Fold each of these.
Amino acid sequence: MIQQLASHGYVVVTIDHLGDAYSRLPDGRVVAPTEQSLYPQDFERDARFVLDEIERLAAGHNPDVDRRRLPDGLAGALDVRRIGMIGWSKGGTATARVMLSDRRVRAGLAIDPPLLPAMDGRIDRPFMLMTAEFTRATDPAVRKFWTQLIGWRLNVQADGAVHSSYNDLQVLMPQLAKIVGMSDEELRGWTGHLNTARAVRIDQAYPVAFFDQHLRGHHQRLLDGPSRAFPEVQYLGLSAAGDTHRG
């Protein structure tokens, strides 16, 4: 997903939340996951810090901790007027939290977010949900959040998808299953019934279409409704600001 966005000309900044996974610091130290889980609020604070640093970069400053020379042309490539955010699981919840608290993010895409703890406020900028297990039909928090989206909004869901279907695990787990002797049932817990190749195409197509439409202003027919190219993708809700007839 990230490679696809970058290949379409987006400057993509990824966040390595210390303590959430294994992280290597610039001095070579490795930080292991902490026993105490990080929460969407922690991710939100990290993201807003990164937004501050992006603004510094765009202004010609160098926030690199070791003061290393930045790649030529990086500052001029950043357009802080067109920032989007994307996140999976609690990263998706963090995306929602940042959109509620920081207007620098112009468009948000949340991938199967649990959307807890509950949040106050409304989002009047474009927001898209790619759901699997945390759905409006089964999860009150997701259903409530949907009502807080008062601008352009879209909810899609791939048939057979599970929580980890919209990321690299969909490709990696079938390979790992062969190595460790994972049963078909165990593998389906990771990948659901969504075909791996189809999952990759979905992961590549929808985020690019979303950001192309809402950051670049290029209308994308893929976002208008069910597509012949992706028959397994359901459009569970679609509306623009002030539109009460769809979704």
Amino acid sequence: MTTPVLSVENLVKEFYVKTTAGLRSARQTVYAVSGVSFAVEEGQTFGLVGESGSGKTTVGRCVLRLLEPTSGNIAFKGQNITSLTQVELRPLRRQMQIVFQDPYASLDPRLTVGTSIAEPLVVHKVPGDHAEKVASLLELVGLSPDHSRRFPHEFSGGQRQRVGVARALALNPSLLILDEPVSALDVSIQAGVVNLLQDIQKELGLSYVFIAHDLSVVRHISDVIGVMYLGKLVEVGPAESVYTNPRHPYTTALLSAVPEPNPVIERGRQRIVLTGEVPSPIDPPSGCRFRTRCPRAEERCAVEEPLLSSAGGTHQVACHFPNEVPVTLGGAGH
């Protein structure tokens, strides 16, 4: 077997916040990511999906060491990068890049687009004609080389995100962390950016970690999907397997909320509405973290934490009472 481009084992990230009660102050722990493990093969897209606050963006930033993990191991092409110093990590940063969620905030409004795209080349002291490289990158993402002289405010949201992709590709990386790259864009623009990312992946052989909360987008682009809830992975498996046969009740509920374009199928679908609010990551529930909103929770769920276990093939689920019978949600072929 080949070595994965990225391997994450038992990743934990905790934040500490100060709280004040009267005249006393105390420190509380926010359990943002709790024991997440997954691998990304060469040329593969791993989709990480979950509600806001589930910890998926924190996972992406820990992978790049933009946030320091509390514990766990992160290996890039077989090399453990968790304990590397910033100086030792610097050469590897050329091979791991990120595309941020907000195309309006991720570009410096004072710099031309060409300067922003060339900045990684300058920082890493890459020799050669930077102007020529910028022109080729702009063409790669579907923009004109003449656009290099323009400023970010002269572009639409979709065009700005294409500039962000071009900047991330400047150093010829092999891994891209895509942090909700289309969530800030109009629906009509999203498909163009997603198709662009797929075309670039095929052309350059890139590996992606695609972070999103839009399940239809994740299904379209991902080979493997990991579903996160309150800092933990609750289901992992091949994209089609997760979508056509979800085994965790949380995944089932998420998929039931995805609109179905076929009105006949839509009328026959069962919508699952979860009750209650997402618990605080400062004080997560004991046992299964989803039990406070789960329609099938029993006493065992409060005292015993479910671990990821096989649900058939490479499909894994963390649930004491997973779906035993395939759940048909409709639209498998769409």
